[in-house]
Amino acid sequence: MRFVLDNSVVMRWLFQDGTPEAMDYARHILDLLTKEDGVALTPCIWALEVGNVIARAESRGLLQEARSAEFLGILNDMAIDTDVRSTAQALGDTLQLARRYKLSTYDAAYLELALREGLPLATNDEALRKALAVAGGRLA
Predict the structure, then answer these.
(1) Any domain includes 111
(2) pLDDT tens string 109-118
């Protein structure tokens, strides 16, 4: 199964925190991704978001660099592809979606990619889930 992967799900894998529902959903998405036909697609900002959360957590003492490196190694082995066309959409469709649904442009990038590719979106972000439903997309 192909789907768009939001950083909110990935961070549940790393930190193992959140509501029971968020954790169950994150595990479900991990199961989808680790199946033979599982492929996640991310906008070009995804790696920067992952890196930002990790750097901030390390600077606050919430995460050790060794654990970060281990997690990044695991991510690198997963079938996660980056959509290079998302940059071209940033000041067009992505910005319009951010305005329409009152999202950050970062969150709108995931929505834009899911809508453009006709793929379900894996997210734990409530505002993004609501925007996805209104826009006619589907949740992974």
Answers:
(1) yes
(2) 999 999 999 9
